[in-house]
User: Fold these one by one.
Assistant:
Number 1:
Amino acid sequence: MTEGLVSIITTLYNSGDFIAKTIESVMSQTYTNWEMVITDDCSDDDGPAIVESYAARDPRIHLIRLKENGGPGVSRNISIRNAQGQYIAFLDSDDM
């Protein structure tokens, strides 16, 4: 756990139309001590590729790809287990 770090937990499933704006909304915040843990639940659209392009530019963004579809609960729990922050915030993949 890293003191003061906010872990933003986002599940991703076929949200390619929204995920870029969701990530950009986090990146535009004035508070910068965050990480975004995005778990892809076997999307079959371009959502994971979009996340990978952001992760390549910003080391605070992490993508986890599941091998089997488990639903949003499984995805959230995996993200939480991989979070390093002192605080947890949930942000859906289509929210800004």
Number 2:
Amino acid sequence: LGPWGFWGSLGWGAFAGVTGLFAVIFYTLIWMLTHGLRVANSEDQAFATMSGILVLCAPTVVLVIAAKIRHLSLRDYFALEGFSRGNLALGLICLIALIVAFSAIQILLGINGGSKHMEATYLAAKAAGVLPLLWLSVVVVAPVTEELFFRGFLHRGWAPSWLGVSGTIVVTAALWAVLHQQYNVLGILFIFVMGLIFGWMRQRSGSTLLPMILHTANNLLATSLVAIQVEWLS
């Protein structure tokens, strides 16, 4: 059996997303039972961070099951292959150019693309004593699970379909960007363009590990800059 086609990938992807929501609902119920039936508050950063990890990890379990049903190895299905240093260098150059370009746009237009939101999240996590959990979520969990979903599972199923490679890169980047509603329009546009780069590098290298590393590098840089701003420059 080959990979799931367009509709199969879409169906499993939607089911995976719903599974993530149910995982958060289940966690919320457990949280309430262990906190005197107090209603969970999304502004509680410890609760919010753990919920964020669950909503990312639970879908991955579903996608693994979907891949195994097709009797393909996870390495093949999710394109967990090596990549050349040339492709890594090209990906890093594109990512750096994108960051510089959007930073310049923010300065010229006087618009904040999302750093204020990140600073608020960082401060809340620090006050709640869950900074290590936040770093784990942003720098490790999000890049791994999101790339497995978009540039791994969906790309694998959609690229050979009627959508084609270019359409797959654009649609997966758009879907990924739409999920980041915590940012303003400029921030979402930045994520969309970054998704185009990740999709292109996934197709060019034949590896989902490459966009995963680029994603990790971006999140590590962004979180480190926020930490520097909060801890030393404020």
